Amino acid sequence: MDPVIIVGAGPVGLALSLALAAQGVPSVVLDEGDGKEEARPARSVVLRADMAAMVERLGCTTLHDEGVRWVGWRGMRRRQTVRHLALDLGLSGTEEWSEDPDAPSAPAAPLHIPQHALARGLRGAIAHQKLVRLVTEARLDTVEQDRDGVVAHTRGPEGTWWRGSHLVGCDGARSAVRKLLGIRFPGRTAVERHAVAALRTELPWSGESLLHRQPPWRGAADEITARPLPDGVWRIDWLLPPRGDLVTPDALIVRIRETLAGWCDGVTPPYELIDTGVHTLHHRLARRWRVDRVLLAGDAAHLLGAVGTQGLDEGLRDIDNLAWKLAHTWHHNAPERLLDSYQSERRAAVASRLRAADQSLPVLRGGGLRTYLPGATRGHDALLTDGHVGRGPLGAPPAYPHSPLAAPYTEGRIPVGTPVGAPVEDVRVTAPDGTTVRLRDRLGQGRLLVLLVAPGTGVWDRRHWRGAGVMPRLEEAVDALPAKAEVLVTEAYPGAPAHAVLLVRPDGHLVAAFSGVRPEELYAAADAARGGPATTGTDEAGDPTGTARADAGVSAGSDRTADMH
Predict the structure, then answer these.
(1) Which distant-in-sequence residues (6+ apart) come within 8 Å of 92 by Cβ?
(2) d(CA 52, CA 60)
(3) Is 329 helix (H, G, I), strand (E, B) or coil?
(4) Which helix (H) or strand (E) holds 280?
(5) How many CA atoms are closer than 13 Å to the CA of 31, on its beta-carbon side?
(6) What is the pTM of this model?
(7) Which of 233, 242, 232, 273 is nearest to 255 (CA)?
(8) Strands across the sheet with 111-114, in order?
(9) pLDDT in tens, the chain (565 residues)
(10) Sign of dihedral through CA atoms 244, 245, 248, 251?
(11) What gap in Å lies between CA 80 and CA 59, rounded to an integer?
(12) How far apart are CA 40 and CA 98, in angstroms?
């Protein structure tokens, strides 16, 4: 069977190729460039804890050495610290929880890394992956598709035709794939502008990220953000007026000196300027994310980034959602409903994020009477904090409560601490081989997870409890499921009673929870999660070591996708 064609070799496209390879699906990545990453420390990205863990599962090794997880978050207004949060540095999730929903908990620490270091780490993982073919200097020219696959033509040293089962456009804001499909990309231009500098210096908040609103020194921006990187490097962003003058080198040096002096008791500390830039943020959302066998992901599908939202983090969530669905379709010829759910779930989630940011901007940036209402400032600071640390409407991981893959309601369904469609907690689990791992470690392998809550199993040897209680019946039920699944056991799960059974999607979202082992209900939920019965009775199809065909003489007789909108 033909591989998946991925257009674009940024972090999103590279991550998709690795995620597909982890599930036995070959891919070809078409890179318009020469495959080299320009070192730009001022162009960095923030990943939430779960997406950083996903990237590590894909084999990216640069996160540890070239990324930093913040130890804390500090919010300042004028001269006062108005908010200070200690962050949870363990990516392992919640070890303990409180039954009190209002009990405070430390947010998981985001990871901050230069984008070129992230891309280099992903390329390094691809170098060891036989199922991924990376083609440089391959600029997409045309896309055609038929009922059996996709044909893409690239320009380069030698024009080449590529045949694939599907094509995913991960080619950024100016996506050629999106334009060839004729998909509109409405939204707002230049929602925010920031002057950016990467510099090596010593600041009073080692390892903490800082958001300073309305700093007191003359000529300062209304908002300044400082985020640490390794080796004493900081990325500092100054919010600029929407239609201000160009930022000259001299003006930026003045900003740097005044800002450092303002933070260091009036004395500018020694610093080394490494990189500068101007970062302009746009808010746009593609009308469609799928046209038959061609899909969009990352910046090709959406642009966001104002008030703490993270564009690349959302692009990786696209990949987390799409990869297992595309793999199941590739192996099993899944029903259209499964790939359709990618657009339904992810587009709705990103639209919600964009809506929250657009509604917040007039309040946060507009000033006026609302700024002086009692408690307004505290509310604004909390909203911005949530956006930056990954909580609330601007930052929390998305849930898909209205997914077309939702399981039917049955008598045995019970509520647990995780709403249906939301990401599950990263609790400790015992795997089939007897090892104790994190639940998150079992994600991304293309199979459903069936989690049994069994208090006390941690003190028993595996050979005793595997054949005791409900385990034999549960394993029998899992063996009969319509999709591959793995049984895991945990001592406890938030809000779940003993012997509860949770069904979890390959991307970590909860399908349903049941009071005990209910084979028929578990089967129905698993069938819904995979999109229903396969259109044919095929087993895992295709040659997992296959590569794209570079057939210069492929016929161009298929319908052009530009006419399919």
Answers:
(1) 426, 428, 438, 440
(2) 10
(3) helix
(4) strand 272-285
(5) 19
(6) 0.90
(7) 273
(8) 44-47, 111-114, 68-69
(9) 899 999 999 999 999 999 999 999 999 999 999 888 889 999 999 999 999 999 999 999 999 999 999 999 999 999 899 999 999 887 443 333 333 434 446 788 999 999 999 999 999 999 999 999 999 999 999 999 999 999 999 997 767 999 999 999 999 999 999 999 999 999 999 999 999 999 999 999 999 999 999 999 887 788 999 999 999 999 999 999 877 667 889 999 999 999 999 999 999 999 999 999 999 999 999 999 999 999 999 999 999 998 888 999 999 999 999 999 999 999 999 999 999 999 999 999 999 999 999 998 888 876 544 444 444 455 777 888 888 999 888 899 999 999 999 999 999 999 999 999 999 999 999 987 888 899 999 999 999 999 999 987 665 555 555 666 788 999 999 999 999 999 999 999 999 999 999 999 999 999 999 999 999 999 999 999 999 886 544 333 333 333 333 332 222 233 323 222 2
(10) negative
(11) 42
(12) 43
- Residue 290 vs residues 156, 336, 365, 378, 501: alpha-carbon distances, Å: 27, 11, 35, 41, 34
Beta carbons of 506 and 25 less than 8 angstroms apart: no
- Please provide the size of the chain in residues: 565
Query: What number of CA atoms fall less than 13 Å from residue 293's CA on the CB side?
Result: 26
φ, ψ at 348 (rounded to 5°): -65, -40
8-state DSSP, 423: B
The answer to whether residues 152 and 5 touch, using CB atoms and an 8 Å cutoff, is: yes
DSSP 68-106: EE-SEEEEEETTEEEEEEE-B--TT--SS--S-TTS--P
Strand-by-strand arrangement of the 302-303 sheet: 80-86, 72-77, 208-213, 223-229, 233-240, 187-200, 272-285, 302-303
Phi, psi of 284 (to 5 degrees): -145, 155
**Pairing between β-strand 4-7 and β-strand 72-77 as defined by DSSP bridges:** unpaired
What type of residue sits at position 92? S
Torsion of CA 176, 179, 181, 185, to 10 degrees: 120
276, amino acid identity: T
The H-or-E segment that residue 435 falls in is none
